[in-house]
Specification:
binds S-adenosylmethionine; 367 residues; Rossmann fold; alpha/beta
Length: 367
């Protein structure tokens, strides 16, 4: 079977590495999409272990050079829909068209309905506006006239973790936080710092990676409503995933200047069963100017006006200073404060483009 994973922009190569680590065969990596093939039975595993990707789709059909509605109709009609869906499940059809001849979402959706009704005569197949746990989602993805008909096996996007009920201003996406930890190359047995920790997203994701906790053990997936794999296969994958967790004394320092944060952030960490492994302090990051720190720091300093930081420039000057005086510290910050470039010597830094939602950021590191 062929699968298509959607990711946030900028982390496709990390998703690819994660997939290769499991020996699945990569077919193609393009902008925010990774295509690979493997057995259908592994669908639960991919969903359970999803750290940096958004949704896992099953590729039902694809065709290049689709420039007219008749061809699209025939492509939809050629799929054996009964193989996937139980009768009566409401199905939501989404469309996305980029640089292509066919682009009207409304026309594509009504075409889909005609084709599927003709094929399976589901007179009671309903097209719902909203996507909820009762709905199954089909995505008709058209890029440069290449049509892919995709079945969402995940349900809601996998970047929103179950533990986060409390977020503060400007929280980072969980999948992005996990990607940053991977990129930082943090050695799990060494200390990790986040001096602007907010709701603790980075440190919670770091601990979940270090302890090899599958991020999605406690949720339901869309594939459980399909006719593709049986319940035992799915449950066995959960049991296997649980058995892969391991423990160690990790040394994690999270701090933030805002005392209101602590209770909210703690609730997240308690839900993730990780609170006791995080050393939290209410602390201005400037205190690090007088301390010597080693090992790894991954953080997300403030960069939005609405965080009411009056002097971002001086804050970023101090961040740079802390990194200069701690030559043994391997550090990484994500920010969209582009003026940081004008405060530092470009040749001393490496940077990588990443997106927090649609917001372009850089992930900076001193060489
Ligand atoms: C962009 S947010 C971090 C969000 C976090 N990554 C999350 O996912 O929730 C920046 C954080 O920096 C904190 N902050 C602002 N000024 C600070 C300072 N001088 N020292 C330490 N923390 C500060 C804010 O309270 C805020 O929680």
């Amino acid at each position: 079977m062929k699968f298509v994973l959607s990711t946030i922009a900028g982390v496709e190569s990390i998703a690819k590495k994660e997939i290769e680590r499991q020996w699945w065969k990569i077919e193609e990596v393009t902008d925010r999409l990774v295509t690979f093939s493997w057995w259908i039975e592994l669908m639960p595993r991919i969903n359970l272990w999803s750290r940096v990707w958004n949704k896992l789709y099953l590729l039902l059909e694809e065709q290049n050079n689709v420039g007219d509605f008749d061809t699209l109709f025939n492509l939809i009609y050629s799929i054996n829909w009964k193989k996937y869906f139980k009768k009566d499940y409401p199905i939501l059809v989404k469309t996305s068209s980029t640089r292509s001849t066919l682009f009207s979402a409304r026309t594509i959706q009504s075409l889909w309905k005609k084709a599927i009704v003709k094929k399976v005569v589901w007179e009671d197949s309903i097209m719902k506006e909203d996507f909820n746990l009762e709905n199954l989602e089909i995505l008709i993805l058209i890029i440069d006239n290449r049509v892919r008909i995709l079945l969402n096996t995940s349900w809601n996007a996998l970047h929103m973790r179950w533990y986060r009920i409390q977020a503060w201003e400007a929280p980072i996406k969980e999948s992005l936080a996990a990607a940053m930890v991977f990129l930082s190359d943090w050695k799990f047995r060494e200390p990790l710092y986040d001096p602007f920790c907010g709701s603790w997203t980075i440190v919670i994701e770091a601990l979940m990676i270090a302890k090899n906790i599958a991020p999605w053990l406690k949720r339901a997936f869309a594939y459980e409503k399909l006719w593709l794999i049986d319940w035992e296969t799915s449950e066995n994958e959960r049991i296997l995933a649980r058995s892969k967790t391991f423990d160690w004394e990790y040394i994690i320092f999270a701090s933030d200047i805002d005392s209101k944060m602590i209770e909210l952030a703690k609730e997240n960490a308690i839900r993730a069963w990780l609170a006791w492994q995080i050393n939290f302090e209410i602390k201005d990051f400037k205190q690090y100017l007088d301390m010597e720190i080693h090992w790894t720091l991954v953080s997300n300093p403030p960069y939005w006006e609405r965080l009411k930081n009056e002097n971002l420039k001086s804050m970023y000057n101090n961040i740079d200073k802390i990194f200069r005086i701690n030559s043994k510290l391997s550090w990484w910050i994500i920010s969209n404060f582009m003026e940081f470039d004008s405060l530092i010597k470009a040749e001393d830094y490496k940077k990588r483009k990443l997106y927090n939602g649609w917001e372009k950021c850089y992930f900076w590191r001193r060489k």
